[in-house]
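Session log. Operator J.P. requested a structure for one protein chain; no other inputs attached. Running the standard single-chain path with C-alpha cell output.
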Amino acid sequence: MTDTRYDVIAIGNAVVDVIASCEEALIEELALNRGGMTLIDEARADELYDAMPPARELSGGSAANTLAGLSTMGLQCAFIGQVADDQLGKVFRHDMRATGIDFDTPARDGEPATGRVLIFVTPDGERTMNTFLGAGQFLPAEALDEDLIASAGILYLEGYLWDPEEPRRAMRRAIEVAREAGRKVAFTASESFVIERHGDDFRSMIDDGVIDILFVNESELATLTGEDNFEAGFDALAPKVPVLVATRSAKGAVASAHGERAVTAAVPVPKVVDTTGAGDQFAAGFLSGYAKGERLEVCLKRGAIAAAEVIAHYGPRPEADMKALMEERL
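Structure written below.
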C-alpha cells in the first residue's frame, strides 16, 4: 500500500441547502414528510421555495458536510460530485475550497441546475428535507479521478447518491479502485427509503465484504436487517461488517469493530436548534478518530461531540473551532 495523499475522499451530492424555520402547521399544509427526506423535481422545488418563510442558503450535501467537518478537524480531504455551470454551482465550489477541501470535478453544462435541498425546521429542531438533486444525479464514472481515489486512506460514499443510475455506476467503480489500492471503504446508508429501494444492493455489498465501515441510524438499521428491536438488529449485522456504527439520536451511539463493542451517550446541548447535519457530523467526528487509529470508544465520543456542536445552531456544518472543542471535551 502506498502512502496516502488524503485522509478521506468522498463522493456525494453537490447541493445547496435552503433552510427556514417554520411552524408545524406549514408542514401539514404542504403535505411534507415530517422529519424525513423526500426527493422532488424542480417544479416542486420552486413551489416549496415560494412557500418558505425567510431562509438562509448554505452549501450542503451529506458527504460534503462530513468532509467539511473533517477538514475543520485538520484532516486532508477531497470531494467528487457534480454541479452545473451556474451560480449555485459556483457557490458550492467556492464553499468547499474555502473549507480546505479539494474539489475539481468539472461542472456540467446545460440542464438541470445545481441541486438544492429545501429544509423546514420546526420549533423542536426537527428538520424536514425536500431534495432536488439536479446536476448531482448525473455524475458519470468518467468524471472520477481514479488516481485521486487511490490516494485516499478512506473512500466515503453517500447512500443518497445511490438512487440515480449514473452516480451509482460511478460509486461502484470507485469502490473497485479503492479496494484495488488497499484502501478502506466507508458507506453511510443516509435514509430508510434508500434502503427500501436498494437494500438488496447494500446487503450484497455487505455480504461480499466490500464495505469496511457502515454508518446507520436506528430506523435504517431496522430497514436493513428487518429487525425492529435495535439490539437484535445490531447483533445480526455487526458480524458482517468490520466496523459498524449505529446512531440513536438522544440515546447516543453504538459501534462494533472486529468483535469489540463500544457505546457513547449523546452530548447534551442547551437547546436543539436544527438537527440538519447531525448524522453527517457524527460520521466526521468518528472518522477523524478512526483515521488516526484512535480507540473505538474515542471515535464514538468524537462523533457525539461533533453532532452536539452542529445541532446547537442552524446549518449542517460546524461553526466552532473543532480542533479546540475536541481537545477540550475528550
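Operator note: The chain has a mean pLDDT of 94.
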